[in-house]
Design goal:
two-stranded antiparallel ribbon, disordered N terminus, mainly alpha, Mito/Outer_Membr_Metalloprot, three-stranded mixed β-sheet, 5 strands, about 10% strand, 12 helices, hydrolase, about 270 residues
Length: about 270
Amino acid sequence: MKRMILGVAIAVAVGGCATTTSPTGRTQYVGAVPQAQLNQLGAQAFAQMKAQKPQTSDSRQRAYVQCVVDAVVRELPANWRGGWESAVFADKDANAFALPGGKVGVYTGIFTVARNQDQLAGVIAHEIGHVVSRHHDERITRQAGAAGALQVVSGLLGSRYGQGAAQAAAQGGGILAQTGFLLPGSRAQETEADVVGQQLMAKAGFDPRAAVTLWQNMIAAGGARPPEWVSTHPDPRARIGELQARAQGLIPTYEQARATGRRPNCG
């Protein structure tokens, strides 16, 4: 019954969709669900995941991740800063995500490829970039407009963050959390999150060149089965050149941030 109500709500809300411009100048269609509701659904899905998936007992890992999150969030526009929280899940997959409502999840497996704070910032800033670029809103709006309430259920077939996260969202977060939060982003959205994420990490005082090293580590760790975080992103080899080019252009931003006291010391 809850899913039916949510489906009808989506169909009704489509009429209120709006056109806006993304941080990189791309036209977006958003607004099928109000931001407050997106935040609530993000918090709901995050709470369910924390309740069902074991978290690390290592306080240093928790503090490390929250330190990087805090440093990145300080560079967001004022309306996005809010009270961001993070959780570190005890899982060997190299994976991470961020949700509307200021939620960041990191799997302990990410530390095998993000080997210092700058590389970890590359992961976290990318995921936060999805949130502030309104990609979850955009995906929900696109799905609702294209399929209508009856076909939104097909979104349950895909999950960006693995079956554990998908099941947690399905059980507690409702169908919107599943379709809008957990499906892979489009190529345009992934590129945009790269751009926004690299800008954020440079402004926060993290070396933007570390995003390149991070992806190189991801590829090296892949073997026959790439890390989960890589497997949901388009052709990592192709984007390394783009990351390298942007990193060079962001060195002045990074150096200015360091000169003005933005020197994260997260570990």
